[in-house]
Automatic annotation (TrEMBL):
One of its GO terms (biological process) is 'de novo' pyrimidine nucleobase biosynthetic process. Its EC number is 2.1.3.2. This is Aspartate carbamoyltransferase. Heterododecamer (2C3:3R2) of six catalytic PyrB chains organized as two trimers (C3), and six regulatory PyrI chains organized as three dimers (R2). InterPro entries: Asp/Orn_carbamoyltranf_P-bd, Asp/Orn_carbamoylTrfase, Asp/Orn_carbamoylTrfase_sf, Asp_carbamoyltransf, Asp_carbamoyltransf_Asp/Orn-bd.
């Protein structure tokens, strides 16, 4: 069996294309498992995983926890969003306390970019980055690409537009890395105030007109407007944002082709997309959620198999 080229999943930028394909093939297998009457496999019975969430996240945390339990791992949950863990030093203290309980793997979400990399240099466990600030969110990008592959047969050569708050989004950055790695064409679309200055260096085009972007793409990934990360006003009002960059059913139906609509969740219904778009047959938002468990099972399984060796 081939194995991952990395010992941690810190970001998509550390993976190669073979890693991504291996994760997808492993996820195919686990997707079949989670659709069986008995959804568990004993693969990781002797592995202990700590989920450290220094930032609130219901969906990602649930998805990881479910993936870990489906693999029969022992799971410790640590929610530090409310605790006083804010400094790098106390991050190591917290983790060392948890490692003294003999933990093999740490799944961590942290508000500081690079927290996972920092941790991987200081502790012996395998690290999975579940989101570090506005930097990367690798498992989300993997499940997004996997969902495109499932719907359209392949990611290579597809036109994908990422719409919305690119500046504050770790989902956007990880998705750009993952899609480019697999040979997709990527554009971003949103208010210029929410497009980062370095976007050109990623080999991505900017399209400020939503209609043009939708006419070009096969897939539109609609990002949530991250009000909680905005310390200043980046656009006049939510209503104005929706008028320019929101997708409704009328707009969708007026295109001369059927495009795929994705959303990392949670949806601000009526802001990025209307309810009738979210619930339409073109949206694969619920497939993304189901695929999230299979992808996270694959990542954990592949990293754990390197621990055992």
């Amino acid at each position: 069996m081939s194995e991952l080229s990395v010992d941690h999943l810190l970001g998509i930028k550390y993976l190669n294309e073979a890693d991504v394909q291996l994760i997808f093939e492993t996820a195919d297998h686990f997707k079949e498992v989670i659709n069986r009457p008995i959804k568990k496999v004993p693969s990781l019975r002797d592995i202990t995983i700590a989920n450290l969430f220094f930032e609130n996240s219901t969906r990602t945390k649930l998805s990881f926890e479910l993936a870990e339990k489906r693999l029969s791992a022992d799971v410790i949950n640590f929610s530090a969003a409310q605790s006083s863990v804010k400094k790098g030093e106390t991050l190591i203290d917290t983790v060392n306390n948890i490692l003294s309980m003999k933990v093999d793997m740490v799944v961590m979400r942290h508000p500081n970019p690079g927290a996972g990399v920092f941790l991987s240099k200081h502790i012996k466990a395998s690290i999975v980055n579940a989101g570090d600030g506005a930097h990367e969110h690798p498992t989300q990008a993997l499940l997004d690409s996997y969902s495109i592959r499932e719907k359209l047969g392949d990611v290579a050569g597809k036109n994908v537009v990422i719409v919305g708050d690119i500046l504050h989004s770790r989902v956007a950055l990880s998705n750009i890395f993952a899609l480019k790695l697999q040979g997709a064409n990527v554009k971003v679309c949103g208010p210029m105030t929410l497009i980062p200055k370095y976007i050109d260096s990623l080999g991505v085009e900017v399209e400020t007109n939503l209609r043009k972007a939708l006419e070009w793409c096969d897939v539109a990934n609609m990002l949530r407007v991250q009000n909680e990360r905005m310390d200043i006003s980046y656009f006049p009002s939510t209503r104005e944002y929706t008028q320019q960059f929101g997708v409704n059913k009328t707009l969708l139906d007026s295109l001369d082709k059927e495009i795929v609509i994705m959303h990392p969740g949670p949806i601000n219904r009526g802001v990025e997309i209307t309810s009738d778009v979210a619930d339409s047959k073109q949206a694969i938002i619920l497939n993304q959620v189901e695929n999230g468990v299979a992808i996270r099972m694959a990542v954990i399984y592949l990293l754990a198999s390197k621990i055992k060796n």
